[in-house]
Design the sequence.
C-alpha cells in the first residue's frame, strides 16, 4: 500500500484511490456546488520547502537581497522600509478587522437573543437593555421592565400574566430558536461547509503544516460570522469564543494576500495565523495576554520570538477596537467581567481543589461521551441528516431550557450572574438572603442589610439553588450532543457554565457552613460573625476555570485569561490550584484534550507535541518504500531528457522528487519541487531557443559538453534544494518524531552513507504509532 500523493511521497505506482484521498478533502458530497461557492477546493500538505525552517531560509535570502539593494538607491531604501513595516501593518489590520467583527457579533447576538422573549416598541433594533436605558418609568425592584419593552404575550394578547401569556411566550421562544438554528445550518450547508464546529482543531492542524483549501477563505469568514450569531442566539449550549479564533484566522489569511511576502510564503503565513489565534481569544475574553499565551500553549507548532511580539501587538489592537465599540455598554470587553474584594483564606484551598477534581472528572467524562456521540453521528444515518439533527436538538434544548430561568438565559449572561458578588444593589434570586434580624427577603429585596457580610439563606436562594442543580444536569447532558453539530459551536462558554454552576453551589454551601459554624475550629480566627468570609462568586470563577481546563487541558493561558477577567492578582493561587488539579485528574483518564480528540477522530495528520513516543524502532522500520513496494521515483542529476522528466511528472502526483547522482548509485544530491520543475521547463520552452523534448536536463553546476548535433541542455541547478532534511536509516524513531514535531516537518528523506533509501512522512509515523497501539489509523477524507 502506498502513501497518498498529498505527502509528496515518491512511489511510482501509487493507486488511484490513494492519490485522490486528500484531493477530495472535505468535499460536500450532497451538494457539489457548495464546495465551489465556499472556495473549498482540494486540500494538500505543504511542500517540503514550505516547512517552517526552509520557508524561513527563503525569507532570509529575500530579506538579505533587499538589504543589499537598499544601499544603492533611495527607492530601494524605501522598499526596504516598507517591507520591514509590512508585518506590523498586517498585524494592525488583523487586529482592527477581528475586533470590529467580534463587536458586531456580540451586538447582533445580544439583540437576537432578546428578540426571542420580546420586542422594543420604540425601535426593533434595540435589545432589552438598550430599550430600557432611556426609560424614566423603571424601578429599582424591576429594573429590567419598562413600557417600551414588551414580551410577545403582551404584544399578541395584551397581558403578561396567566397561563395563556406563558404559553405564548414559550411558543415564540421555541419558534425563534428553531428559525435561527434552521438559518444557521442551512447557510453552512449551502455556502460554507467549513464554517461548522469550533475550528480550533483544524487551526492546530493547519499550523502544523496541513493546508485545507477554502477553510480560511472569504466565504467561510462571511458565513461563519453570520451563522455564529444565529447559532448563539438560538439558545443552543454553545459559545462563540472558539469560533472567534477561526474568524480571526480567516481575517489574517485574507489580509495576507495583500502582502507579497506573506502571499507567497506558507511558513510566514502560518506565523500570522499563530498571531491571529491570539487575536481571537483576545476579543473573545477581553484578555490580550491570555490570548498570546493561548496561541503559544495550545495552538502553535512554531512560535518564534518575532511572532510573540506581533501576536501581542495584534491582540492589543483587537482589544482596543472591541473596547472602542463597547458592545455590552459597560465599558468592558466581556459581559461577565467582575471584581472581587474579599480575600480568600488558606482553608478554602480544600474546596478549590475539590472543584479542580470535579472539573477533571467532568472534562474526561465529556470528552469520552462527546467523541462516542460523534462516532455514532459519523457511522450511522444520523450523519446524513444534519439539518434534522440541529432542529431536533434545538427544539429539545428550547423546551427543557425555557421553564428554568438559568437555562433560558444565554451562556455569557448565566456566567455573569454566577460570578456576581451579592451587594446592596443586587436583586438577583441568588442574593435572596435573610436579613440579619431574621426576616426573609423576597427576591426583589435581597441583600437588604449588610450587603457584604455573610447572611443566612432565604427562600429565594434555596429556590435558586434547586434551579441551578437542575441547570447543572441539563448543561452537562445537552452540551455532549451539541458540540460537533453542523453549526458554529464553541466549547469555552458551555464548559465554563458547568463549572460556574458547580462552583456557585459549593460556594453558597461553604458560606452557609461558615455562617452557622463560625465558632468551629475550621473557621475560628478568620471568620467572625458579621464578616464577609466566603465569596460564592469566587467559587463560581474557580469552578469555571477548572471545568474549562479539564476539557481543553489548558493551564497557564487559562489562569491568565481568568485573571484578566477578574482583575485581581490575589486569586491566582486558587485558580492555579484548581486548574492543575483538573488537568492531573483528567490526564489520569486520558492525556488528550477535546481538540486533540477531535483531531484524532477526523484523522488529521497531526503529531501531538504532548504525547511521548513509546516504541523502540528505527526509521528503517517506518520509511517507504518497503520491500514489496515499487522503487522510488527519482531524477538523476544528468542523463534524463526533458521528455522523460515530463513523462515522470505526468505519471505521478507527487509534490517533489529527490535528485540522485545516477540510477545505480542513488547518492543523494538534493530535492526539487514538482511546481518549480514544471514552471522552469515551461519558461525554458518559451524563452530559451533550442529547448525541445530531446534536450538534456542537467542539475549539476557544470554540464558536460553536448554532442555537435544535440539540442542545448536545460540547466536547472538553481531550483534544487541542496540541503533537504535527512536522517539515517538507523536513527531511532523517538528522535525522528521529535525532529518532525519541533521543526514542523511534513516529510524527511532517509539515507545510508549518503545513499538515498527512502522517505518518511508524518502520516507514516502516525500509522506506525496507531498500528503499534493496535488501532486502525483513520486517515480518511475530512467530513466536518
Sequence:
Amino acid at each position: 500500500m502506498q502513501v497518498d500523493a498529498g505527502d509528496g511521497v515518491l512511489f511510482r505506482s501509487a493507486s488511484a484511490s490513494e492519490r485522490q484521498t486528500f484531493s477530495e478533502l472535505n468535499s460536500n458530497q450532497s451538494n457539489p456546488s457548495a464546495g465551489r461557492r465556499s472556495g473549498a477546493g482540494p486540500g494538500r500538505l505543504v511542500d517540503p520547502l514550505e516547512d517552517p525552517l526552509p520557508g524561513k531560509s527563503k525569507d532570509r535570502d529575500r530579506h538579505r537581497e533587499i538589504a543589499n539593494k537598499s544601499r544603492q538607491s533611495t527607492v530601494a531604501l524605501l522598499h526596504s522600509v516598507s517591507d520591514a513595516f509590512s508585518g506590523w501593518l498586517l498585524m494592525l489590520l488583523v487586529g482592527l478587522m477581528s475586533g470590529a467583527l467580534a463587536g458586531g457579533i456580540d451586538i447582533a447576538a445580544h439583540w437576537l437573543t432578546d428578540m426571542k422573549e420580546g420586542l422594543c416598541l420604540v425601535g426593533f433594533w434595540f435589545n432589552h437593555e438598550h430599550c430600557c436605558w432611556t426609560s424614566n418609568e423603571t424601578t429599582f425592584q424591576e429594573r429590567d421592565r419598562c413600557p417600551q419593552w414588551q414580551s410577545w404575550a403582551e404584544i399578541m394578547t395584551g397581558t403578561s400574566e396567566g397561563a395563556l401569556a406563558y404559553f405564548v411566550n414559550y411558543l415564540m421562544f421555541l419558534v425563534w430558536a428553531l428559525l435561527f438554528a434552521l438559518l444557521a445550518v442551512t447557510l453552512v450547508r449551502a455556502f460554507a461547509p467549513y464554517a461548522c464546529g469550533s475550528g480550533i482543531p483544524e487551526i492546530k492542524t493547519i499550523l502544523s503544516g496541513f493546508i485545507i483549501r477554502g477553510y480560511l477563505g472569504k466565504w467561510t469568514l462571511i458565513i461563519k460570522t453570520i451563522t455564529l450569531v444565529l447559532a448563539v442566539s438560538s439558545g443552543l449550549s454553545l459559545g462563540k469564543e472558539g469560533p472567534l479564533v477561526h474568524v480571526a484566522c480567516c481575517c489574517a489569511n485574507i489580509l495576507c494576500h495583500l502582502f507579497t511576502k506573506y502571499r507567497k510564503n506558507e511558513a510566514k503565513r502560518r506565523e500570522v495565523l499563530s498571531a491571529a489565534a491570539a487575536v481571537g481569544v483576545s476579543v473573545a475574553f477581553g484578555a490580550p495576554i491570555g490570548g498570546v499565551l493561548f496561541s503559544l500553549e495550545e495552538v502553535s507548532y512554531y512560535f518564534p520570538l518575532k511572532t510573540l511580539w506581533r501576536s501581542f501587538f495584534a491582540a492589543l489592537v483587537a482589544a482596543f477596537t472591541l473596547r472602542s465599540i463597547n458592545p455590552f455598554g459597560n465599558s468592558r470587553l466581556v459581559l461577565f467581567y467582575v471584581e472581587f474584594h474579599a480575600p480568600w483564606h488558606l482553608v478554602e484551598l480544600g474546596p478549590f481543589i475539590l472543584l479542580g477534581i470535579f472539573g477533571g472528572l467532568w472534562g474526561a467524562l465529556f470528552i469520552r461521551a462527546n467523541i462516542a456521540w460523534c462516532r455514532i453521528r459519523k457511522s450511522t444515518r444520523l450523519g446524513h441528516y444534519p439539518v434534522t439533527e440541529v432542529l431536533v436538538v434545538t427544539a429539545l434544548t428550547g423546551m427543557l431550557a425555557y421553564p428554568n430561568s438559568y437555562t433560558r438565559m444565554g451562556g455569557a449572561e448565566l456566567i455573569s450572574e454566577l460570578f456576581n458578588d451579592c451587594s446592596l444593589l443586587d436583586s438577583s434570586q441568588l442574593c435572596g438572603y435573610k436579613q440579619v434580624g431574621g426576616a426573609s427577603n423576597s427576591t426583589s429585596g435581597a441583600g437588604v442589610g449588610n450587603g457584604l457580610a455573610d447572611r443566612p439563606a432565604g427562600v429565594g436562594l434555596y429556590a435558586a439553588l434547586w434551579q441551578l442543580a437542575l441547570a447543572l444536569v441539563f448543561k452537562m447532558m445537552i452540551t455532549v450532543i451539541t458540540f460537533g453539530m453542523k453549526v458554529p459551536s464553541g466549547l469555552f462558554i458551555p464548559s465554563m457554565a458547568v463549572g460556574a454552576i458547580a462552583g456557585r453551589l459549593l460556594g453558597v454551601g461553604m458560606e452557609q457552613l461558615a455562617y452557622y459554624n463560625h465558632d468551629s475550629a475550621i473557621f475560628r480566627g478568620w471568620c467572625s460573625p458579621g464578616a464577609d468570609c466566603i465569596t460564592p462568586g469566587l467559587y463560581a470563577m474557580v469552578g469555571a476555570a477548572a471545568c474549562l481546563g479539564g476539557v481543553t487541558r489548558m493551564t497557564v493561558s487559562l489562569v491568565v485569561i481568568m485573571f484578566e477577567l477578574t482583575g485581581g492578582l490575589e486569586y491566582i493561587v486558587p485558580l492555579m490550584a484548581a486548574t492543575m488539579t483538573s488537568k492531573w485528574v483528567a490526564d489520569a483518564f486520558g492525556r488528550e484534550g477535546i481538540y486533540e480528540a477531535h483531531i484524532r477522530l477526523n484523522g488529521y495528520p497531526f503529531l501531538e507535541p504532548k504525547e511521548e513516543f513509546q516504541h523502540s524502532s528505527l526509521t528503517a522500520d517506518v520509511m517507504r518504500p518497503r520491500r514489496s513496494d515499487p522503487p522510488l521515483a527519482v531524477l538523476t542529476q544528468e542523463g534524463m531528457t526533458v521528455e522523460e522528466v515530463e513523462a515522470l511528472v505526468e505519471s505521478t502526483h507527487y509534490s517533489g522528487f529527490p535528485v540522485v547522482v545516477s540510477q545505480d548509485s542513488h547518492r543523494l544530491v538534493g530535492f526539487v519541487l514538482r511546481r518549480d520543475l514544471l514552471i522552469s521547463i515551461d519558461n525554458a520552452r518559451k524563452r530559451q531557443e533550442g529547448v525541445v523534448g530531446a534536450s538534456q536536463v542537467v542539475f549539476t553546476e557544470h554540464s558536460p559538453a553536448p554532442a555537435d548535433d544535440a539540442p542545448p541542455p536545460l540547466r536547472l541547478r538553481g531550483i534544487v534544494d541542496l540541503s533537504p532534511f535527512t536522517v539515517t536509516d538507523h536513527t531511532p524513531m523517538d528522535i525522528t518524531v521529535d525532529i518532525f514535531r519541533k521543526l514542523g516537518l511534513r516529510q524527511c528523506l532517509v539515507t545510508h552513507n549518503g545513499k538515498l533509501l527512502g522517505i518518511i512522512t508524518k502520516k507514516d509515523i502516525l500509522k506506525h504509532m496507531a498500528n503499534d497501539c493496535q488501532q486502525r489509523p483513520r486517515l480518511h477524507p475530512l467530513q466536518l
In short: DSSP finds 29 helices and 13 strands in the chain.
